Task: structure prediction
Amino acid sequence: MACNHALNSGHRIAVLLDTPTPESAQADVRLLVTSRPDHTDHDTTLTGVVTDDGELEPRTPFAQPWPHVELVPTVATPDVFPASIKGRLSEALAGKTNGLLLFGSGSIDEHPAMHLVAASLALTERAGPAARVMPRHRSTPSKDWDVPESIRALPYLPSIESAYARGYRRIIYTPSYTRSGQLLAVSNDALLISGSYGSDLAQVFMASSRYGGSKDEESLLKRIIAVAATVDIPTSDGTASVADLYIANGQDVGTLKRFKEVDEFMAAHRVVRWEDELSSLLEAGSVTDEAVKKAFPRSHGIATFLDEYTKKPGMAA
Result:
Protein backbone atom coordinates (compact mmCIF):
# COMPACT_ATOMS: atom_id res chain seq x y z
CA MET A 1 0.00 0.00 0.00
CA ALA A 2 2.81 2.42 0.85
CA CYS A 3 4.43 1.83 -2.55
CA ASN A 4 1.13 2.40 -4.35
CA HIS A 5 0.54 5.62 -2.41
CA ALA A 6 4.02 6.90 -3.23
CA LEU A 7 3.63 6.01 -6.89
CA ASN A 8 0.19 7.62 -7.14
CA SER A 9 1.65 10.77 -5.56
CA GLY A 10 4.18 11.09 -8.35
CA HIS A 11 7.20 9.72 -6.51
CA ARG A 12 9.65 7.15 -7.79
CA ILE A 13 10.32 4.06 -5.69
CA ALA A 14 13.79 2.64 -5.08
CA VAL A 15 14.09 -0.99 -4.03
CA LEU A 16 17.13 -2.22 -2.10
CA LEU A 17 18.44 -5.59 -3.25
CA ASP A 18 20.47 -8.17 -1.38
CA THR A 19 21.54 -10.60 -4.07
CA PRO A 20 24.28 -13.21 -4.40
CA THR A 21 24.48 -12.42 -8.12
CA PRO A 22 24.86 -8.62 -8.43
CA GLU A 23 26.18 -8.96 -11.97
CA SER A 24 22.72 -10.05 -13.12
CA ALA A 25 20.63 -8.03 -10.65
CA GLN A 26 18.74 -6.05 -13.28
CA ALA A 27 17.84 -9.10 -15.33
CA ASP A 28 16.73 -10.92 -12.17
CA VAL A 29 14.56 -7.97 -11.12
CA ARG A 30 12.99 -7.89 -14.56
CA LEU A 31 12.25 -11.59 -14.22
CA LEU A 32 10.65 -11.06 -10.80
CA VAL A 33 8.38 -8.35 -12.16
CA THR A 34 7.43 -10.10 -15.38
CA SER A 35 6.70 -13.33 -13.49
CA ARG A 36 3.71 -11.73 -11.78
CA PRO A 37 0.33 -12.90 -13.10
CA ASP A 38 -1.13 -10.44 -15.63
CA HIS A 39 1.79 -8.02 -15.37
CA THR A 40 1.60 -5.12 -17.82
CA ASP A 41 3.80 -2.37 -16.45
CA HIS A 42 7.41 -3.54 -16.30
CA ASP A 43 8.51 -1.23 -19.14
CA THR A 44 7.37 1.85 -17.23
CA THR A 45 8.05 0.58 -13.71
CA LEU A 46 11.69 -0.38 -14.21
CA THR A 47 13.50 2.75 -15.32
CA GLY A 48 17.01 2.70 -13.91
CA VAL A 49 19.49 2.18 -11.08
CA VAL A 50 20.13 4.45 -8.10
CA THR A 51 23.82 5.27 -7.72
CA ASP A 52 25.77 5.52 -4.45
CA ASP A 53 25.20 9.29 -4.61
CA GLY A 54 21.44 8.84 -4.66
CA GLU A 55 21.02 9.80 -8.30
CA LEU A 56 18.82 7.89 -10.70
CA GLU A 57 20.84 6.46 -13.55
CA PRO A 58 18.38 5.70 -16.37
CA ARG A 59 18.72 2.34 -18.11
CA THR A 60 17.11 1.74 -21.49
CA PRO A 61 16.49 -1.09 -21.76
CA PHE A 62 16.46 -1.74 -18.03
CA ALA A 63 18.13 -5.14 -18.53
CA GLN A 64 19.83 -6.74 -21.48
CA PRO A 65 18.48 -10.01 -22.90
CA TRP A 66 19.97 -13.18 -21.47
CA PRO A 67 22.97 -14.36 -23.49
CA HIS A 68 22.55 -17.54 -25.48
CA VAL A 69 23.74 -20.61 -23.57
CA GLU A 70 25.54 -23.56 -25.11
CA LEU A 71 25.69 -27.17 -24.05
CA VAL A 72 29.05 -27.89 -22.43
CA PRO A 73 29.89 -31.61 -22.37
CA THR A 74 30.23 -32.93 -18.83
CA VAL A 75 33.28 -34.62 -17.38
CA ALA A 76 31.01 -36.85 -15.28
CA THR A 77 30.54 -40.55 -15.93
CA PRO A 78 27.72 -42.86 -14.77
CA ASP A 79 30.17 -45.26 -13.15
CA VAL A 80 29.21 -44.39 -9.56
CA PHE A 81 25.74 -45.85 -10.06
CA PRO A 82 25.45 -49.39 -8.69
CA ALA A 83 25.47 -51.93 -11.51
CA SER A 84 21.92 -52.98 -10.67
CA ILE A 85 20.49 -49.57 -11.61
CA LYS A 86 22.96 -48.00 -14.06
CA GLY A 87 21.64 -49.74 -17.16
CA ARG A 88 18.01 -49.28 -16.17
CA LEU A 89 18.52 -45.56 -15.54
CA SER A 90 20.34 -45.12 -18.83
CA GLU A 91 17.48 -46.76 -20.70
CA ALA A 92 14.82 -44.78 -18.81
CA LEU A 93 16.54 -41.45 -19.49
CA ALA A 94 17.24 -42.04 -23.16
CA GLY A 95 15.47 -39.29 -25.08
CA LYS A 96 13.96 -37.67 -21.97
CA THR A 97 14.11 -33.87 -21.96
CA ASN A 98 11.66 -32.93 -19.21
CA GLY A 99 10.36 -34.20 -15.90
CA LEU A 100 11.75 -34.93 -12.44
CA LEU A 101 14.76 -37.08 -11.63
CA LEU A 102 15.15 -37.64 -7.89
CA PHE A 103 18.16 -39.18 -6.15
CA GLY A 104 18.71 -40.10 -2.54
CA SER A 105 21.60 -41.39 -0.48
CA GLY A 106 21.71 -43.01 2.94
CA SER A 107 24.79 -40.97 3.82
CA ILE A 108 24.16 -37.88 5.94
CA ASP A 109 26.22 -35.30 4.06
CA GLU A 110 26.25 -31.56 3.40
CA HIS A 111 25.22 -32.32 -0.19
CA PRO A 112 23.47 -35.71 -0.05
CA ALA A 113 23.40 -37.86 -3.18
CA MET A 114 25.35 -35.24 -5.13
CA HIS A 115 27.61 -37.96 -6.55
CA LEU A 116 24.51 -39.54 -8.11
CA VAL A 117 23.29 -36.19 -9.41
CA ALA A 118 26.70 -35.62 -11.00
CA ALA A 119 26.65 -39.06 -12.60
CA SER A 120 23.22 -38.35 -14.07
CA LEU A 121 24.70 -35.49 -16.11
CA ALA A 122 26.38 -38.10 -18.29
CA LEU A 123 23.00 -39.71 -19.04
CA THR A 124 20.95 -36.57 -19.69
CA GLU A 125 22.93 -34.37 -22.08
CA ARG A 126 20.17 -34.68 -24.67
CA ALA A 127 18.00 -32.45 -22.45
CA GLY A 128 20.26 -29.42 -23.00
CA PRO A 129 22.54 -27.08 -21.03
CA ALA A 130 22.76 -27.66 -17.27
CA ALA A 131 22.90 -25.26 -14.32
CA ARG A 132 22.80 -25.50 -10.54
CA VAL A 133 20.47 -23.47 -8.33
CA MET A 134 21.57 -21.87 -5.06
CA PRO A 135 19.67 -23.43 -2.15
CA ARG A 136 20.10 -20.33 0.02
CA HIS A 137 22.35 -17.36 0.66
CA ARG A 138 24.93 -18.93 2.99
CA SER A 139 27.08 -17.16 5.55
CA THR A 140 29.71 -19.80 4.66
CA PRO A 141 29.48 -19.99 0.85
CA SER A 142 32.62 -22.11 0.59
CA LYS A 143 30.51 -25.15 1.49
CA ASP A 144 28.58 -24.70 -1.75
CA TRP A 145 31.66 -25.89 -3.62
CA ASP A 146 32.18 -29.14 -1.70
CA VAL A 147 30.64 -31.02 -4.61
CA PRO A 148 31.97 -33.12 -7.52
CA GLU A 149 33.98 -31.30 -10.18
CA SER A 150 31.26 -31.76 -12.81
CA ILE A 151 28.83 -29.90 -10.52
CA ARG A 152 31.30 -27.12 -9.67
CA ALA A 153 31.73 -26.48 -13.39
CA LEU A 154 28.06 -25.57 -13.85
CA PRO A 155 26.65 -22.03 -13.72
CA TYR A 156 25.42 -21.33 -10.18
CA LEU A 157 22.19 -19.33 -10.37
CA PRO A 158 19.83 -17.80 -7.79
CA SER A 159 16.61 -19.61 -8.69
CA ILE A 160 14.94 -22.26 -10.82
CA GLU A 161 13.06 -19.49 -12.61
CA SER A 162 16.29 -17.65 -13.41
CA ALA A 163 17.96 -20.79 -14.75
CA TYR A 164 14.95 -21.59 -16.91
CA ALA A 165 14.65 -18.03 -18.23
CA ARG A 166 18.30 -18.08 -19.28
CA GLY A 167 17.73 -21.20 -21.37
CA TYR A 168 19.04 -23.97 -19.12
CA ARG A 169 17.01 -27.13 -19.48
CA ARG A 170 18.74 -29.35 -16.92
CA ILE A 171 18.38 -27.72 -13.53
CA ILE A 172 19.91 -29.12 -10.34
CA TYR A 173 18.01 -27.99 -7.26
CA THR A 174 17.86 -28.66 -3.51
CA PRO A 175 14.47 -30.10 -2.44
CA SER A 176 14.56 -28.71 1.11
CA TYR A 177 14.55 -25.15 -0.28
CA THR A 178 12.16 -25.67 -3.19
CA ARG A 179 8.37 -25.46 -3.29
CA SER A 180 6.37 -28.02 -5.22
CA GLY A 181 4.78 -25.29 -7.31
CA GLN A 182 8.17 -24.30 -8.70
CA LEU A 183 8.81 -27.87 -9.82
CA LEU A 184 5.41 -28.22 -11.44
CA ALA A 185 5.76 -24.92 -13.28
CA VAL A 186 9.04 -25.81 -14.97
CA SER A 187 9.28 -29.61 -15.18
CA ASN A 188 7.00 -29.80 -18.21
CA ASP A 189 9.73 -28.15 -20.30
CA ALA A 190 12.95 -28.91 -18.40
CA LEU A 191 14.63 -31.78 -16.60
CA LEU A 192 14.86 -31.03 -12.88
CA ILE A 193 17.38 -33.11 -10.95
CA SER A 194 17.75 -33.26 -7.18
CA GLY A 195 19.72 -35.01 -4.47
CA SER A 196 18.52 -35.50 -0.90
CA TYR A 197 18.95 -37.74 2.08
CA GLY A 198 17.00 -40.95 1.66
CA SER A 199 17.71 -44.64 2.01
CA ASP A 200 14.49 -45.60 0.24
CA LEU A 201 12.06 -44.15 -2.27
CA ALA A 202 9.60 -42.87 0.33
CA GLN A 203 12.21 -40.67 2.00
CA VAL A 204 13.43 -39.30 -1.33
CA PHE A 205 9.94 -38.48 -2.60
CA MET A 206 8.96 -36.90 0.71
CA ALA A 207 11.96 -34.56 0.45
CA SER A 208 10.68 -33.23 -2.89
CA SER A 209 7.05 -32.89 -1.85
CA ARG A 210 7.48 -31.46 1.65
CA TYR A 211 6.47 -27.94 0.55
CA GLY A 212 3.16 -28.82 -1.06
CA GLY A 213 -0.20 -30.43 -0.40
CA SER A 214 -1.60 -33.82 -1.31
CA LYS A 215 -2.67 -32.51 -4.72
CA ASP A 216 0.93 -31.51 -5.40
CA GLU A 217 2.12 -35.00 -4.46
CA GLU A 218 -0.13 -36.52 -7.11
CA SER A 219 0.99 -33.94 -9.69
CA LEU A 220 4.67 -34.42 -8.85
CA LEU A 221 4.35 -38.18 -9.21
CA LYS A 222 3.03 -37.66 -12.74
CA ARG A 223 6.15 -35.64 -13.60
CA ILE A 224 8.64 -38.18 -12.25
CA ILE A 225 10.88 -40.08 -14.65
CA ALA A 226 12.77 -42.02 -11.99
CA VAL A 227 13.53 -42.08 -8.27
CA ALA A 228 16.67 -43.83 -7.04
CA ALA A 229 18.17 -44.26 -3.58
CA THR A 230 21.45 -45.94 -2.69
CA VAL A 231 23.03 -46.95 0.60
CA ASP A 232 26.71 -47.80 0.99
CA ILE A 233 27.57 -50.50 3.53
CA PRO A 234 31.13 -51.21 4.70
CA THR A 235 32.42 -54.72 4.06
CA SER A 236 35.58 -56.53 5.04
CA ASP A 237 37.19 -55.66 1.72
CA GLY A 238 35.60 -52.34 0.77
CA THR A 239 32.07 -51.05 0.30
CA ALA A 240 28.91 -52.62 -1.08
CA SER A 241 25.87 -50.68 -2.27
CA VAL A 242 22.19 -51.51 -2.20
CA ALA A 243 19.66 -49.60 -4.27
CA ASP A 244 15.98 -48.78 -4.51
CA LEU A 245 14.72 -47.77 -7.96
CA TYR A 246 11.37 -46.68 -9.36
CA ILE A 247 10.96 -45.89 -13.05
CA ALA A 248 7.73 -44.47 -14.40
CA ASN A 249 6.37 -46.34 -17.39
CA GLY A 250 2.91 -44.92 -17.90
CA GLN A 251 1.25 -46.29 -14.78
CA ASP A 252 -2.05 -44.69 -13.80
CA VAL A 253 -1.39 -42.48 -10.77
CA GLY A 254 -4.52 -40.34 -11.01
CA THR A 255 -6.25 -42.13 -8.13
CA LEU A 256 -3.44 -41.54 -5.62
CA LYS A 257 -4.41 -38.76 -3.22
CA ARG A 258 -2.34 -39.23 -0.05
CA PHE A 259 1.36 -39.65 0.64
CA LYS A 260 0.79 -43.14 2.05
CA GLU A 261 -0.87 -44.17 -1.22
CA VAL A 262 2.02 -42.71 -3.24
CA ASP A 263 4.53 -44.50 -0.99
CA GLU A 264 2.76 -47.84 -1.38
CA PHE A 265 2.45 -47.36 -5.14
CA MET A 266 6.14 -46.66 -5.69
CA ALA A 267 7.16 -49.49 -3.38
CA ALA A 268 4.97 -51.90 -5.34
CA HIS A 269 6.35 -50.75 -8.72
CA ARG A 270 10.06 -50.79 -7.95
CA VAL A 271 12.32 -52.33 -10.56
CA VAL A 272 15.13 -52.74 -8.01
CA ARG A 273 14.44 -53.36 -4.31
CA TRP A 274 16.92 -52.61 -1.55
CA GLU A 275 15.52 -55.56 0.44
CA ASP A 276 16.50 -58.02 -2.30
CA GLU A 277 19.97 -56.55 -2.68
CA LEU A 278 20.58 -56.49 1.06
CA SER A 279 19.38 -60.08 1.42
CA SER A 280 21.93 -61.16 -1.19
CA LEU A 281 24.73 -59.43 0.70
CA LEU A 282 23.66 -60.99 4.00
CA GLU A 283 23.37 -64.45 2.47
CA ALA A 284 26.87 -64.11 1.02
CA GLY A 285 28.22 -63.00 4.39
CA SER A 286 29.50 -59.78 2.84
CA VAL A 287 27.99 -57.48 5.48
CA THR A 288 27.14 -57.74 9.16
CA ASP A 289 23.94 -56.77 10.94
CA GLU A 290 25.82 -54.08 12.85
CA ALA A 291 27.22 -52.55 9.65
CA VAL A 292 23.76 -52.57 8.10
CA LYS A 293 22.20 -50.77 11.08
CA LYS A 294 24.89 -48.07 10.94
CA ALA A 295 24.33 -47.63 7.20
CA PHE A 296 20.57 -47.07 7.73
CA PRO A 297 20.65 -44.66 10.72
CA ARG A 298 17.23 -43.10 10.05
CA SER A 299 15.38 -46.11 8.68
CA HIS A 300 12.52 -47.23 10.89
CA GLY A 301 12.17 -50.48 8.99
CA ILE A 302 15.73 -51.82 9.01
CA ALA A 303 15.46 -53.46 12.45
CA THR A 304 12.25 -55.20 11.40
CA PHE A 305 13.85 -56.33 8.14
CA LEU A 306 16.87 -57.83 9.92
CA ASP A 307 14.66 -59.53 12.49
CA GLU A 308 12.50 -61.10 9.78
CA TYR A 309 15.59 -62.09 7.79
CA THR A 310 17.15 -64.00 10.68
CA LYS A 311 13.88 -65.89 11.21
CA LYS A 312 13.93 -67.32 7.71
CA PRO A 313 14.54 -71.08 7.52
CA GLY A 314 18.24 -71.82 7.44
CA MET A 315 19.28 -68.43 8.82
CA ALA A 316 21.11 -68.03 12.10
CA ALA A 317 19.03 -66.56 14.89
Remarks:
- The longest helix spans residues 83-93.
- The beta strands are 48-50, 56-58, 99-105, 130-133, 156-157, 170-173, 191-197, 224-235, 238-247, 270-272.
- The chain has 14 helices and ten strands.
- The CA atoms of residues 53 and 155 lie 33 Å apart.
